[in-house]
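Researcher: Next entry in the queue.
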Amino acid sequence: MDKTNACCEKHKHRDEQEYKKLIHRLNRVEGQIRGVKKMVEEERYCVDILTQVSAIQAALNAFNKELLSNHIQTCVVEDIKKGDSAVVDELCITIQKLMK
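Model: Structure for this entry, 100 residues:
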């Protein structure tokens, strides 16, 4: 990690349930990606691979929805309660990036 950015890097402690849920989703995506790699190595039919890639995209979208919801309910709410309205601008920028 670049030491010049270490002071500005944000962190969020997640409770055990949220952590496990997110990691579980990521592990499933990781497995799906390994499956697609194997399909390419085995010279599987293009449409079959594309179908699996579509499933991976859906799984990543589900992960993003979960994480975004958690972010709004915790980080954003907490910052607004502290009087930090800049978090709303950050949230809007984040949503715009996700919707590309």
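Model: The chain has one domain: 16-98.
Researcher: Noted, moving on.
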